[in-house]
Specification:
This is LigA protein. With about 325 residues, this protein is mainly alpha-helical. The chain contains eleven helices and no strands. The chain is globular, with a radius of gyration of 21 Å.
Length: about 325
């Protein structure tokens, strides 16, 4: 993987170009890939701003590639790099799973192979969905490979540590973690119910989308629960930290980032032009999804911080007495 770094960097940047080209065309008034009668012809300022935002987000991938491959990237504070990467993983994660399934379903005659609604081809020409989402899949795989090499070099010792390692945080800290996880489960319930209910949708693409979000929601909850449980007692040998942490990272990112993105589309009005559900129930689901992802990410980050910076035994004992 280290020797493949230049190749992965080139592939990741090249995969951004089709999407950026389309976005710049639309921002400048072009209509490439937008058929006659598409709602995007009358989408207004909100959609223009959304296109500008998504173009900037895709351009950020290029900056992330540089940060992951250049020496100065090793000197960046962890949050400066991990936050945009967590966002990128969260937004690209469902596409990596759902798009290949949709494409296969389309080849077999069970779906459009691209969009998430029956009006996908009326919104954009079918080749746009294929080009854009194929590029996203390539971006995700190349960027993920670069990130894996980076974290191995910078935080490999921590990630290879045993999963089951006692985390000293006192009774009050443990109670706060348990309360936070209970809150995350509670706000995840509307998300689980909404996606499970839509599995009966007659449109194959919609079923794939909802099944994908269900998968990530369950994965995030299970991974963070395991992290919290593993911090309670030592267990020599056995599993390493990184697989469970990676599942918590990706699952929480998908929930928080897609929940926030759909919430932004709903509140800005741009989502209606894209066929996004905009009912009150949908708005509640988006908000709950974003909140659940943020809570789970905070719990996972807290566990990692305690593992990387364990408190002194005296401080832990004092905290336990005060708790």
């Amino acid at each position: 993987m280290t020797h493949a770094r230049p190749v992965l960097a080139t592939v990741a940047v090249a995969a951004c170009l089709p999407y950026l080209t389309l976005k710049l065309n639309w921002l400048s008034g072009g209509l490439t890939g937008i058929p006659e009668g598409s709602p995007l012809h009358d989408s207004g300022t909100a959609m223009w701003l959304l296109n500008a935002l998504t173009a900037a987000m895709d351009g950020t991938v290029v900056l992330l590639v540089l940060a992951l491959t250049r020496p100065w990237g090793r000197r960046l504070p962890a949050p400066v790099l991990t936050l945009p990467l967590w966002t990128a993983c969260g937004l690209l994660g469902p596409i990596v799973v759902a798009f290949p399934v949709k494409a296969l379903s389309g080849l077999l005659g069970g779906g459009t192979g691209g969009g998430d609604t029956d009006g996908a081809d009326a919104l954009l020409e079918s080749w746009v969905w294929t080009v854009v989402y194929s590029g996203f899949v390539v971006q995700a795989l190349a960027l993920g490979g670069l990130f894996a090499v980076y974290v191995r070099d910078r935080w490999g010792t921590l990630l290879r540590s045993p999963l089951h390692r006692h985390v000293r945080e006192g009774r009050s800290g443990g109670a706060r973690a348990a309360s936070g996880f209970a809150a995350a489960v509670a706000v995840s319930l509307p998300v689980l119910v909404a996606h499970a209910a839509r599995l009966a949708d007659e449109h194959a693409d919609n079923r794939v989308t909802d099944a994908t979000f269900l998968l990530y929601t369950v994965t995030a909850l299970a991974a963070v629960a395991r992290l919290l449980r593993a911090g309670g007692a030592e267990r020599p040998g056995g599993a390493r930290l990184w697989p469970t942490l990676a599942a918590a990272w990706l699952g929480s990112g998908v929930l928080a980032c897609w929940g926030g993105w759909l919430l932004l589309g709903d509140l800005s009005g741009a989502g209606r032009a894209l066929g996004q559900q905009t009912s009150g129930a949908a708005l509640l689901t988006y908000a709950c999804q974003a909140l659940a992802g943020l809570l789970l990410a905070a719990l996972a980050a807290r566990q990692v911080h305690h593992r990387a910076h364990p408190p002194a035994a005296g401080a832990a004992a004092g905290a336990a007495v005060r708790g």
